[in-house]
Amino acid sequence: xxxxxxxxxxxxxxxxxxxxxxxxxxxxxxxxxxxxxxxxxxxxxxxxxxxxxxxxxxxxxxxxxxxxxxxxxxxxxxxxxxxxxxxxxxxxxxxxxxxxxxxxxxxxxxxxxxxxxxxxxxxxxxxxxxxxxxxxxxxxxxxxxxxxxxxxxxxxxxxxxxxxxxxxxxxxxxxxxxxxxxxxxxxxxxxxxxxxxxxxxxxxxxxxxxxxxxxxxxxxxxxxxxxxxxxxxxxxxxxxxxxxxxxxxxxxxxxxxxxxxxxxxxxxxxxxxxxxxxxxxxxxxxxxxxxxxxxxxxxxxxxxxxxxxxxxxxxxxxxxxxxxxxxxxxxxxxxxxxxxxxxxxxxxxxxxxxxxxxxxxxxxxxxxxxxxxxxxxxxxxxxxxxxxxxxxxxxxxxxxxxxxxxxxxxxxxxxxxxxxxxxxxxxxxxxxxxxxxxxxxxxxxxxxxxxxxxxxxxxxxxxxx
Length: 465
Prior knowledge:
14 strands
């Protein structure tokens, strides 16, 4: 039984119900062709890659039940751009179209010219467009000459603008004869593509159409400090891209594997930008979106959309397995955080060691490198950080739970520091650290963003209980 866990009501739609149509959105399925699965899934994988074909089949069966006007896939269709994986997915989408559900795709950073493709055979941009020709490229009314971006009619009164935000043209591989292997997962939209996109939106608006933009990388920060801490997960020159996309009703993204929505005021269609990010289809809790959308004249401020989490397969407990797999991400986060903190304060701590020894602090109680700091972080913070990761991935944050989790993280940070440098040192160092970490955690756990710019970015998630 599928569970509707999140209803996101941004504003009221005043149009006639008969003119509303549903779109289904998934992102980051990262499918690996069945014949490539065995022996090719790393031990530290967070996604259920080995189950990706079965999960994708279940998602497409959901599409057959929902029967949306169209299915949209916002990039990272494949594990690492394997041609066999693309062909497997394209075949499944062909079957879905035969059952009456049109499909539209856009590439993600994993999909094209990927030097890490399992088996070594990836695809070029031309091959991607050919394989997914019936998923938007053949129906396109305009194609950008500098990327895999295109424009296509989505349904009456609604235009789809699919933006290729990837940098695969910078990828290199020793296997291709290059001097070294380079893989870019960061995002950008070229200036010429921005100009093309702006012109396409203007043309669609002149017809009275609503415009749905789909691209892989985030346009807006969904978590405070995202552009600084996770720059590869937000598009380069995002203000310029947002300006080019002004006038669009909705921007659909993926990439960071979180389920969230954020807007720049004023709310669309009065000039702001509304971005809806969908988590990875093969990562717990396996989300997909169902969006009500209709003609521009029928929508005053927005539309209703829901997030649905894929139910367990009778033959595989996806939820339990997926949560255990995702929990590994805490080790990744702890390693990243420890490295950044150590680079800032490791030297200071080591220089202060003689003074701390006068206060009874033993040198062996202090970390001597980032790896030891990571171990301490996991010892004290694994449980609350796991809950935080689950919250961000799931979306629809509960403020009461978020506040409790934020308090637990703060308390455990201070306890960890007190055991290392005593209560006085914990107060001093902890104050410095929490001042920098708490805004990020508050943004993630309480769903309240204020990123320190002249424009407030504020999330709009509301949980249906």
